[in-house]
Amino acid sequence: MSEQGGNVSEPNTQDTGTSGMSGRGVTALAERKKARLDELARASAEPGGVSMFRDIVRRLSRNPVAVTGAVIVGLFVLVAIFAPLIAPHDPNQRFDQLLDGLTADTIPGSQDGFVLGSDPLGRDFASRLVYGARQTLLVGVLATLIGLAFGVVIGAIAGAFGGWVDVVLMRLTDVMLALPGLLLAITLVALASRSSQWTVIFAVSIVSVPIFARLLRGAMLAQRESDHVLAARALGVKERAIVLRHMLPNSLTPVIAQATLTFAVAILEAAALSFLGLGDPDINRAEWGLMLGVDGQRYFEIRPELAYFPALAIIIVALGFTLLGEAMREAIDPKNRR
Amino acid sequence: MSLLDVRDLGVVFNRRGERPFTAVDKVSFSVEPGQTVGLVGESGCGKSVTSLAIMGLLPKRGNTVSGEVLFEGTDLLKLRANDMRDRRGREIGMIFQDPLSSLNPVLPIGLQVAEVLERHQGRDRKQALREARDLLDSVGIPDPDRRLSEYPHQISGGMRQRALIAIALACKPRLLIADEPTTALDVTIQAQILTLLKELVDSSGTALIMITHDLGVVAGLCDTVNVLYGGKIVETAARHELFARPRHPYTHGLLSSVPRLDSLRGERLHAIRGSVSDNIPWTEGCAFAPRCDRVVDSCLDGAPALEPTAVGGRLRCNNPVLEEVAA
Amino acid sequence: MLRVIVRRLLQLVVTLIALTALIFIWLRNLPGGPVDALLGERATPERRELLTKALGYDQPILVQYGKFMQRMLTGDFGNSIRTGDSVVEVLGRSFPATVELALAAMIIAVGLGIPLGYLAARHRGRTLDNLTVGGTLLGISIPIFFLGYLLKDVFTQNIHWFPPSGRISTGLDNTNVTGFFVLDGLLTREFDASADALWHLILPAVTLATIPLAVIVRITRASVLDVLNEDFIRTAEAKGLRHRTIRGRHVLRNALLPVVTTIGLQTGALLAGAVLTEKVYNWGGLGTLITDSITGSRDYPVLQALILVAALVFIVVNLLVDLSYAVIDPRVRVR
Fold first, then answer.
1. Distance, CA of C265 to CA of A126 (rounded, Å)
2. What is d(CA C214, CA B165) in angstroms, rounded to the nearest whole number?
3. What subunits touch chain A, counting only 3 or more CB pairs under 8 A?
């Protein structure tokens, strides 16, 4: 349900809250989101390419908030990659020791060899949590990448061609931007005849497509008018080379910042979909959103830990990505760099 | 007793993570009732900060203010916030540089003028608006009745500054501080505004502190001029004296660098070499030394003292200019 | 300004028509065809034929569409596959429930959010500010349904402060007038019913308000910080105005502009949040309806109506926000 992805996250303190007034054509609601994205995009019109990147990294490394976020993200990725080495047991194996303790209203808790006890089916909860990092990472990364891919392509086309292509594409994205994320995702799930993990991933990724599209288009537009592109053109560099070698690389920095924020949204929305019963039908898969949304809610009264731990994991990771993404956005904003 | 007596005013900015920066360094000057005093200098010399310190408008945190600012005998720096608030707008008025951004964009002009009257003179809304209308008229705004309900973005830059002048003078303050009031305006409007200011202060006997970097503004307006450099006053003189016989090399340089219609063709424009950032701290010597053509050894031996001159001014220089400037 | 309203209303109509066309196309292309979709499991050959004739699906496309539109306009959306009740009735029951919840949540979010955002800005960099910003970051990182369960667990099971679910206690006599239970109680003077409904409303409203609250606090804070840096605030101070005059007339009047748009934006988010919150608390509003209509087999008649209603609400809210902007900001008004 969260409206993240750069829409709602804290604007810069120098971010003009008053930008994006008078709804010209489209409504003032989407105007806000758009204005924010456009500003982020404009940041990429600064010349400097690689050195700018280094500068940003340096600024970030001095920012404790960014560092915290980066550390969390780093740990998360490590846990996900090295899950088999970290997890004490196989996440899908049912253990007699735990099965014995299962009754209609008890699920065994922490005991010898099973640090966090059992899940409703007699599997090691702790191991499932660790492996859950993997699946969650997968869902988040895939959803973000797909959204990014589609969004970037749409945005690049709109930005490069301009004219009516631009207008049509932007109208479409405006409509999508105006709808809240979860509802969009739910609509997609509703449209698909059956659910699968891919349905969830696609549904969640759709939410971020217009965001990336707008971001990239804005970046392209800002750069088309920027000095270094003008210089390149004056020097006779071919248009395609300009686009590929100058405009796109510079547009990437705000995209990366946005992607981290999108990741956070993605895993939250995936969890929400699972909770609603619209998620991945394979409820045996160890994924935090699934664990929280299905087992966590079902057995909340008798063993709330089944909900607390995945929730905590999601919250921390979402927070980590959000902190990092926010800090990146602030670092990129040229207003902060002068 | 002078109307305003600034004594050893100092302002040091200490922001977290940065070195403390002395913006105003023991500045002293006074303003007599009805007098117009100029504070002249380049950007960054501390003139604006001085005026903000006098008005008590510096941010609450991040800076340390020292010295005394005696307004009719009362030290403004020692006043409680609310007491200072009572005086601002009523006894001391101030106008700033950019008229558009200095006005509240969502309030009608009339209200922005009226609210000063409501606050300090106890008028009710209706009365205040009527007086506001008259005030707008007195600053030369045409069709003042209509202007009352218009918004800042609907009127021109010159009119906005006039409105701000009206606001500042609404309660007939004894002192008006004008911080670069014409810098953001077109040249023709500049002249109008300056004329207006002169008329208003002359007719009401209000003292004026004119802060500017533009010597032309000073020439037409001020009785006394203080030249600032690096946070300190380096020269004070009566208007005629300053322009005829600038003593401090910096003042001399400023005057010489103004291009003149009667200079010979092909004659190079005179500029002060270096830039404002080529300073040395006053603790080590004269801050202007790196850029000065007349520098001598004693200039690098601590700051020169601000001494009185024979003609009633002040000078902070070990090796002043002695020739006359061509009129 | 009138022109803007008229133009927007036209847009509204056009969008709705376009939407109905899309829905129509969607229905026709569902597996089994529209008739089967509408009948669901109760489809028998006779029923199918009857419905086909009645809805005109045996006629050329344009006629079909015409009849479809006609039905829409007369408010005939058919019957819910799930419950058999008329769709209009089903929606009529759910709509006020969600609106009541959303309104309560919005009141909390705005009532708390704006002052908190303002205070955070005024005390920038100090404890209150840091706590607030931290809190908002946390607020947008928590899955709302989890929060709902958490609150439910703590406040209804452990400390019995609030009732666990539903909108009103069973067995309580309450007359249904508008569907807004709290209001109804007041209208019919059944104050105990009103109080009970309010009691049930609190926890879900707080849960739902979490994200809008976080967003509003952040936007208000950022906006106030921006405005505090503006020159006209310095002018206001130079005028010697009283602190509260500056706060109200100069700071807030300008700072609240973007907050208003945000409130409008959050209305959409509220509906999304309602879907989750209603499930947690068994609220029986539109959110529950949405979930029920999608899980298992899809309840197309209801979905159809839901989409149209949702679209209508969004567009109207959009319009209201734009209009309010014109009212509040004179720069927009006068062209």
1. 40
2. 42
3. C
Q: Which of C31, C137, C149 sits opposite A322 (nearest CB)?
A: C137
Residues of B in contact with C232 (CB under 8 A): 101-105
Global pTM value? 0.81
pLDDT in tens, C75-116: 777 777 677 777 888 888 888 888 889 999 999 999 999 999
B318 closest CA partner among B257, B244, B301: B301
Q: Which helix (H) or strand (E) holds B13?
A: strand B4-13
End-to-end CA distance of chain A: 36
* Nearest partner of B254 among B197, B214, B314, B287, judged by Cα: B214
Query: Cβ–Cβ contacts within 10 Å for residue C69, how many?
Result: 14
Which among A13, A33, A193 is the nearest to C225, CB-wise? A13
Asked if residue C223 lies in contact with residue C258, where contact means CB atoms within 8 angstroms, the answer is yes
- Which residues does chain C have within 8 Å of residue A278's beta carbon, measured at their own beta carbons? 291, 294-295
Cβ of A297 within 8 Å of Cβ of C276? The answer is: no
Q: What is the DSSP string of A101-132?
A: H-BTTB---SBTTBTT-B-TTSBBHHHHHHHH
SS3 state of residue A239: helix
Q: Report which secondary-structure segment, H or E, holds B68.
A: strand B63-71
CB < 8 Å to C230, chain B: 101
Q: Any chain C CB within 8 A of the CB of B86?
A: yes
- Which is nearest to C287 in space by CA: C158, C137, C99? C99
Minimum-distance CB partner of C291 among A29, A277, A318 = A277
Confidence (pLDDT) at C115: 94
Any B CB within 8 A of C235 CB? yes
Interface check for C126 against chain B (CB to CB < 8 A): the answer is no
Rounded distance, CA B246 to CA C96, Å? 81
Of the candidates B21, B39, B51, B66, the one whose C-alpha atom is nearest the C-alpha of residue B235 is B39
Chain B residues within 8 A of C248 when measuring between CB atoms = none
d(CA B316, CA B306): 4
Total residue length of chain C: 335
How, if at all, do strands B92-95 and B175-179 pair? Answer: parallel
Q: Please, which contacts does B70-73 make with residues 24 or more away whose CB atoms are closer than 8 Å?
A: B70/B2, B70/B4, B70/B5, B70/B6, B70/B7, B71/B3, B71/B4, B71/B5, B71/B175, B72/B1, B72/B3, B72/B174, B73/B1
**Which of C 157-196 lie inside 8 A of A, CB atoms?**
157
Tell me the pLDDT of chain B (327 aa) as tens digits.
889 999 999 999 987 777 888 889 899 999 999 999 999 988 778 888 999 999 999 988 888 999 999 999 899 999 998 999 999 989 999 999 888 899 999 999 999 999 999 999 988 999 999 999 999 999 999 999 999 999 998 998 889 999 999 999 999 999 999 999 988 888 888 889 999 999 998 999 999 999 998 888 888 889 999 999 988 999 999 998 888 888 888 888 888 877 777 777 777 777 787 777 777 888 888 888 888 888 888 888 888 888 888 888 899 888 888 876 554
Question: Which among B88, B10, B85 has a CA at the least distance from the CA of B49?
Answer: B10
DSSP for B223-284, please give it.
Answer: SEEEEEETTEEEEEEEHHHHHH---SHHHHHHHHTS--TTSPTTPPPP--SS-TT----TTT
- Identify from B87, B115, B209 which residue to disrupt to test chain C contact, counting C C-beta atoms within 10 A and taking the largest count: B115
| B77 alpha carbon, distance to own chain's centre | 19
- Where does chain B have alpha helices with state H? 47-55, 81-87, 109-121, 125-138, 144-148, 157-169, 187-204, 215-221, 239-244, 249-256
Distance from CA of C224 to the nearest CA of A (A): 9
Question: Quick one: tokens of A81?
Answer: 């990659």
Angle between helices C253-281 and A28-43 (to 10 degrees): 110
pLDDT of residue B304: 87
